[in-house]
Every structure is written in structure tokens, then in C-alpha cells.
Automatic annotation (TrEMBL):
Keywords assigned: NAD, Oxidoreductase
Gene Ontology MF: a single term: oxidoreductase activity, acting on the CH-OH group of donors, NAD or NADP as acceptor
Alphabetized Pfam families for the sequence: 2-Hacid_dh
Homology family: Belongs to the D-isomer specific 2-hydroxyacid dehydrogenase family.
PANTHER family: D-ISOMER SPECIFIC 2-HYDROXYACID DEHYDROGENASE FAMILY PROTEIN (AFU_ORTHOLOGUE AFUA_6G10090)
UniProt domain D-isomer specific 2-hydroxyacid dehydrogenase catalytic: residue ranges: 21-121
Gene3D superfamilies membership: NAD(P)-binding Rossmann-like Domain
The protein's name: D-isomer specific 2-hydroxyacid dehydrogenase catalytic domain-containing protein
Keyword Nucleotide-binding assigned: no
Entry keyword annotation includes S-adenosyl-L-methionine: no
């Protein structure tokens, strides 16, 4: 998704080059000014092999694949895109929650054994969902939990244990 947005918004003066995965990356970046990596590792050797490099733009929330020290040593800014995949991660979180609540692994085993009447699990409506971390992903998880009829409590990194709050902002005692 982020990659297609970058391509759509690329200025006319910019040249987009997609690397040849059959060749060494270091041999393809000599005149590169901006690197937009995937979520795979970007070796420090690639940064060193790009003398004209001015920016590393990570089109994802995380940047653990970026050699930050190598970029910092050269004064190259590193940007990321926090929240770009928040909805997808939140949906996957709710999927796992539903699978656990409905005991999906046990039901799959019952089904594969040709039996009927596996465990039903529990209904999520009316249950309480605690979301630790109310950043972009946590907010999306809470929104989806509320859509399932769950009461959502959120705690962010600036909260103390006494600061649990509903996702709608009401303080909980």
C-alpha cells in the first residue's frame, strides 16, 4: 500500500529504480540519493556504497531493518511511516482474539477428525478488552473491539497503572 502511494506521488523529476535482486545491492546504489527499502534488512554496506545518499525513507512503521548508526555517522536522516499499517495489524489482532475465543485450533481438529459438535468457545460481546498501547494500532484494535460490543480499556506508555481508561476517554477507578 505505502509503495503504491509513493509511486503515485513521485515527482516528474524523480527517477524510480527498482533494484535487481539477482545483483548485489551495493553495486546498484552509487548515484542513489534516496533509498526506500522494503521491510527486509538494509545492510550498512549499502549505505556506505551510496556516496550521494541524502535520505532513507522506510515505508513502514518500524525501522529495525535500517542501519541507524551507519546513517547517523553520515548525517543521513531516516524517516518511517508510523501507523501506515495500523488497520491491518489491528485486524490481525482481532482475528487472533476471535480464534482464541472460539477455540479455533480445537474446532479444526474436531472438523478434521470428521466429528460434529466441537467446543463453542466464548462470545466476545459484553467482555472487556484491555489494550496496552494506545498508539495508532491500539486505537484501531479498540475501535474494532467496540464494534464487536466489547468494553475497551486502554493504557498508553505515559499512563500509570491507575490510569486505565475506556477508549472513549473516561477514567476508570
Amino acid at each position: 500500500m505505502a509503495g503504491s502511494l509513493i509511486i503515485e506521488r513521485l515527482p516528474e523529476w524523480a527517477e524510480l529504480r527498482i533494484v535487481d535482486s539477482t545483483k548485489r545491492l551495493q553495486d546498484q546504489v552509487a548515484d542513489t540519493e534516496v533509498i526506500i527499502p522494503t521491510t527486509g534488512p538494509l545492510p550498512a554496506e549499502v549505505v556506505a556504497a551510496a556516496p550521494k545518499l541524502k535520505l532513507i525513507l522506510q515505508p513502514a512503521a518500524g525501522y529495525s531493518n535500517i542501519p541507524l548508526e551507519a546513517a547517523k555517522a553520515r548525517g543521513i536522516p531516516v524517516c518511517n511511516a508510523p501507523g501506515v499499517n495500523a488497520r491491518a495489524v489491528a485486524e490481525a489482532t482481532i482475528m487472533v482474539l476471535l480464534m482464541l475465543a472460539r477455540r479455533a485450533p480445537e474446532n479444526q481438529a474436531v472438523f478434521q477428525a470428521g466429528k460434529v459438535g466441537g467446543p463453542l468457545g466464548v462470545q466476545l460481546e459484553g467482555r472487556t478488552l484491555g489494550v496496552i498501547g494506545m498508539g495508532a494500532i491500539g486505537q484501531q484494535v479498540a475501535e474494532l473491539g467496540e464494534a464487536l460490543g466489547m468494553k475497551c480499556l486502554g493504557l498508553d506508555s505515559k499512563s500509570s497503572r491507575q490510569d486505565w481508561r475506556t477508549c472513549s476517554g473516561q477514567l476508570m477507578l
